[in-house]
Amino acid sequence: MFRPLALYIGLRYTGAQRRNHFISFISMISMIGIGLGVAALITVLSVMNGFEQELRTRILGMASHASISAYQQPLADWEQAAELAMQNPQVVGVAPYVRGEIMLTRGKKVSGALVRGILPDREPAVSTVGEHMQRGRLADLQPGEYRIILGSALASSLGARVGDQVTMVTPQANFSPAGVLPRLRRFRVTGIFDVGMYEYDRGVALVHLEDAARLFKLGDGVTGIRLRLEDLFQAPRVARELAAQLGGALRVEDWTRQHANFFRAVQTEKRVMFVILTLIVAVAAFNIVSTLVMVVTDKRADIAILRTLGATPGVILRIFMIQGALIGLLGTALGVVGGVALALNVETIVPAIEKAFHVQFMPADVYYISDLPSKLNWPDVWQIGVVAFLLSFVATLYPAWRASRTQPAEALRYE
Fold it and tell me: Distance between CA 317 and CA 4 in Å, rounded?
């Protein structure tokens, strides 16, 4: 426990006006450096947390928490599988789907896409695409009418608007006396959606389930059924339970397996960024070493006088530890306040900078998300603050130890 004398002198040394202004300048630089490092670390981790959350929301808004499908063949009796899945208390929504790769043409424009056959009345139970319709509604998809809803970027690439016709070409072929001909079908565009994720806006088209099944010759079968869960993080457990109930006859997959590499890469990036930015904080914190070494040199006479008045080496040690720790504490507090303020306002600051300088930091055709989200996690803030302060505290040990080893006779010999 620190004695009041050491605390009092340490605080006086920290706030006193020094004859050597260079030492004060170095102390200020050390404090600002720690603050900038902490603020950068909080802001970057908050942005990465927001990026991960936004990606998960958008991916699972179009994908599914879990899915059930047959092995290399259509799922014939999907209603029975859906009823079995709904018996699990975690499952809150079920919808069948048909999926296939197709090519869309309009005039001279051609684009590959992934077509998904859906039931408009069931789709809102497993996805949020209906909430992101720019034109039209999911209900506009009617069986036998051959209507299609395009992603916004896909519609733009084809130059298609609501009411236009596009031609769908499927990989399956028709055999005729004239030879092998591709299967073609005209669809009328009845809607355009924009989920804010380029991968889906550029590459997905929606049609009615019956039209898709007829197009891919699935009969009454479907590709599979999609599940929405009460808690998406329970998806692996629910998938195992359903697989056990189905007895291995059907394949059950969850989003953590379907997108495992992607989210694992995001977690790895977060850890790497934490280490890199912590090193920046460490560099700033260890500037305290040079500051305190110069302070000890400047205060050798004062240390000698304190020793002759009865101060023990332990008291001298604590005086300079308090001084260095206070610099680290102030720098950490400055960084935490600045980092929290910046993290909470990133979504406002970045668009303002983009508008002012006419730049775009994250183009939609390059990145999954074109804006910069932020999610502040307070445990991350406390962890960063504690790490920064501990690094600052460690940096005080050697100079404080050197100060405690000062011999009064040696220090006062030339005074």
Answer: 14
Instruction: Give the whole-angstrom CA distance, residue 415 versus residue 412.
Output: 5
Among the listed residues 339, 342, 348, the one whose alpha carbon sits nearest the alpha carbon of residue 380 = 339
- Helix, strand or coil for residue 218? coil
Give just the sign of the alpha carbon dihedral 8, 11, 16, 19: positive
CB 20 within 8 A of CB 298: yes
Instruction: Tell me the average pLDDT across 355-361.
Output: 79
Measure Cα distances from 139 to 124, 147, 208, 246, 362 in Å.
11, 11, 10, 32, 34
Q: How far is CA 250 from CA 10, 203, 255, in A?
A: 71, 28, 17
* Backbone angles phi and psi of 57, in degrees to 5: -65, -45
Q: Rg of the Cα trace of the chain?
A: 32
Q: Tens of pLDDT along 68-88?
A: 998 878 888 888 889 999 999
Please enumerate in sequence order all residues whose Cβ is within 8 A of that of 128, keeping only pairs 6 or more positions apart, or say none: 61, 62, 195
Runs of H (alpha helix) within 63-197: 78-86, 152-158
CA distances from 192 to 64, 114, 188 (A): 21, 15, 12
Dist. CA 393–CA 386, nearest whole Å: 10
Q: What is the pTM of this model?
A: 0.70
pLDDT (tens digit, 9 = 90+) per residue, 124-158? 999 989 899 999 999 999 998 999 999 999 999 99
Query: In terms of Cα–Cα distance, which of 230, 229, 239 is closest to 260?
Result: 239
Q: How far is CA 208 from CA 84, 140, 292, 349, in A?
A: 24, 9, 73, 42
